[in-house]
Amino acid sequence: MRGVVVTVLVTGGRGHVARAVVDRLLAVGQKVRVASRKPEEAVLPAGVEVVKADLSDPDTLPGLLDGVSKVFLYADPKGIDGFVAAAEVSGSPHIVVLSASGVEEGDPATDPIVRMHRAAESALRASRLSWTFLRPGTFSTNTLQWAHAIRGTRVVKAPFPNAHASAIHESDIADIAVLAMTEPGHEGKAYPLSGPESVTQREQVECISEAIGRKVVLEEITAEEYRDALGRWGDAEVVDTLVRHLVEADGRPAPVLTTYQDLTGEPGRTYADWTADHADDFR
Ligand SMILES: NC(=O)c1ccc[n+]([C@@H]2O[C@H](COP(=O)([O-])OP(=O)(O)OC[C@H]3O[C@@H](n4cnc5c(N)ncnc54)[C@H](OP(=O)(O)O)[C@@H]3O)[C@@H](O)[C@H]2O)c1
């Protein structure tokens, strides 16, 4: 498929991974249509067609898939059946789904993140569409939650400073998404993805300090204090799941997977690489 120009639909145009996917698709000469619920807020390069669409609202689907051969899809189960049905009648594009690690072994009864990704994967498996599932673990972008505090006081309040994650750069996920959309042989495959090393929260804060050239302090708070802080904006079940994951990761190196290197021949980007790319977010 590389070299053949097709229209690729990228959903969730304001998302971190979606933006990185758009840049890579343009770099390899693909025609890109971006769908966003708020296209006016999507900061996109010239040459990209932007369409206002909400995949959970079937009224916004007609026309969205016209001429589309490939789709980068966020795994939001709301509206997935309508989206799949629309795709099946519009030329059956290949769908690359941003899913998540734990989708098979996690418990959907207690973990809403597993539930959401499993529902989206199941809808694709039950369809006539070809698909590729990307199953990354913890995103490096999660630490953007510290950006406001670092810009203000340079103090990060976090529980479990020794909790590990093999945090993945959104560009690594985007590289694999674009590979799956532009090369043959990725249909029906599920790719577990991680960053190339396991780093603790304390080490992540040290990397940010290094990247911005200023001392950032990690001040340990209790799980309860963290739960209270998250509870102000988060759904209770999601907050419980996030806290549980931190407890499980405390002092335990996270698995490092070789999928990225196996598929690209390159080592994945480290968390230090990510902080260098995002230093301005923390300044
Ligand atoms: N965070 C993790 O550690 C992790 C790990 C594995 C899997 N995942 C999965 O990855 C997905 C999240 O990916 P992501 O980090 O690329 O998503 P993101 O940056 O959080 O954006 C997700 C979507 O939210 C919408 N959105 C709403 N308000 C926004 C705003 N102010 N700025 C930007 N986007 C906004 C955008 O869609 P519209 O433009 O249509 O509004 C966007 O595509 C989720 O499905 C998650 O479950 C996450």
Features:
two-stranded parallel sheet, 283 residues, alpha/beta, Rossmann fold, seven-stranded parallel beta sheet, single chain, binds NADP nicotinamide-adenine-dinucleotide phosphate
Brief synopsis:
The chain is an alpha/beta fold. The chain contains 11 helices and 11 strands.
Can you describe what's shown?
It is a single chain. By secondary structure, the chain is α/β, with parallel strands linked by helices. The chain folds into two domains: 7-136, NAD(P)-binding Rossmann-like Domain (Rossmann fold); 140-166 and 196-254 and 269-282, UDP-galactose 4-epimerase, domain 1, CATH 3.90.25. It is 37% helix and 17% strand. It has helices at residues 16-27, 80-88, 112-125, 147-152, 170-182, 201-212, 223-231, 236-249, 259-264, 271-277, 279-282; strands at residues 7-10, 31-36, 49-52, 68-74, 94-98, 131-136, 155-158, 164-165, 189-193, 199-200, 217-220. A seven-stranded parallel sheet has the order 3-2-1-4-5-6-9, sandwiched between helices. It has a two-stranded parallel ribbon with strand order 7-11. Helix 3 links the parallel strand 5 (94-98) and strand 6. Helix 6 (201-212) runs parallel beside helix 10. It is globular and about 55 Å long. Bound molecules: NADP nicotinamide-adenine-dinucleotide phosphate. NADP nicotinamide-adenine-dinucleotide phosphate is lined by residues 12-18, 36-38, 42, 74-75, 98, 100, 113, 136, 138-139, 141-142.
